[in-house]
Amino acid sequence: MNRRSMLKLSLATAGLATAATAHAQSCATDGTPAQFIPKKAADPKAYENDLDKFPKCPYCGMDRRQYHHSRMLIQYSDDLPDGVCSLHCAAISLAVNVDREPKRIWVADNASTAEIKPLIDVDQATFLIGSQIKGVMSKRSKVAYGSETAARAAMAANGGELGRFDQALLAAYTDMSQDVSMIRKVREERRQRAATQRQG
Prior knowledge:
Helix content: 25-40%
Number of strands: 7
Strand content: 15-25%
Number of helices: 5
Mean pLDDT: 86
């Protein structure tokens, strides 16, 4: 897979590649978009003990151990790693770091029966897109399997359609607007419930 071409296509489709990214390296302190550069130190073996190294998603704050089954890990060409909770947040990382070339991308393998799903390279994964399985940070789920047989069995049980990483990533960008609105609504409802409990 030509990952650079695929990312350019997905970003163009989503309308997320902006002129501002061209100035990312010169905006170290003013809050535009260099603030999104992964904050962890370069690590050529980022995948080793990834849950210990990257316990929280830097974009939404979710616990990656709790969402071990949907987590992803991106390693850029300068070895800066970005451990995220889901494909939704991986899409954000890839968009705001558009000037960085991803060297490797891993995703949790839902074909595994392990208590904590292991990471596999996205090129080895078959994604089940739009099934009845609950999505993470997205209404339309996108679940990765290291075995196409397992993915087909999940599709038979839950519906949806199979695709490769580029198709799953395109679906993530396509869903971004609706998913962000959904997440905002859920978080506002949570804040209102917490405020009501404090008053009660």
